[in-house]
Design brief:
The chain is α+β, with helices and mostly antiparallel strands and 196 residues long. Helix content is 37%, strand content 23%. It is elongated.
């Protein structure tokens, strides 16, 4: 909007185009904030609240993955669906196994394919994995925020993996559906599969 320094004072210097009174500057800042608030409101009310950007240059690799490694492909879709705006998700093999309805062994093989073929990076977090999706393939935030892709993640926990004391502390919240399975959000556990 302005280049250089804005001089603010009790009176305006008419020889300086960047000179403002305190009241003028306050009005300008208020107008800027109103514009930003309107932009945030438009973004919040956008038709696409849950979306991920996909790089069409990766289509050939994605087709190869779908045809040759369907479990790994399903895993990638699950991770993309659940990852945060920094392209990361933390969960255990068991969570993926239950969500996708396949064995833990199949999940481990799928994870190896995804890692070896550079679709994702995997880091360990205790008994869980942190999955980082390659931001050259999928991205869940604004394109100019790719630099933020880092070690932060949404955590998805299976209620069945928690001890009984911990399970009893879960406050069941709203129900969500992931790949046709019903889940409940809880204040203590995050997302946990109903009935497990």
């Amino acid at each position: 909007m302005y280049r250089g320094t804005i001089d603010v004072g009790y009176s305006r210097d008419i020889t300086n185009t960047n000179s403002r009174t305190f009241d003028e500057r306050e009005a300008e800042l208020k107008k800027i904030e109103e514009i930003k608030a309107a932009q945030r409101k438009r973004e919040a009310n956008a038709n696409y609240k849950r979306f991920a950007q996909y790089n069409l240059a990766e289509t050939e690799r994605m087709i190869w993955l779908a045809l040759n490694h369907p479990v790994a492909n399903a895993m990638l879709f699950f991770v993309v669906d659940q990852m945060d705006k920094l392209n990361a998700l933390t969960c255990t093999y068991k969570v993926l196994s239950e969500a996708l309805g396949v064995s833990v062994s199949s999940i481990k093989r799928g994870a190896k394919v995804l890692k070896d073929c550079d679709f994702i990076r995997i880091a360990r977090n205790g008994t869980a994995n942190v999955y980082y999706v390659d931001d050259a393939i999928y991205w869940k935030n604004k394109g100019n925020n790719k630099w933020q892709s880092k070690f932060a993640a949404n955590v998805v926990l299976a209620l069945s993996e928690q001890d009984e004391d911990y399970q009893s502390t879960v406050v069941q919240g709203e129900k969500i559906e992931i790949f046709g399975e019903e889940y409940a959000t809880g204040n203590s556990v995050g997302k946990s599969k109903l009935g497990t």
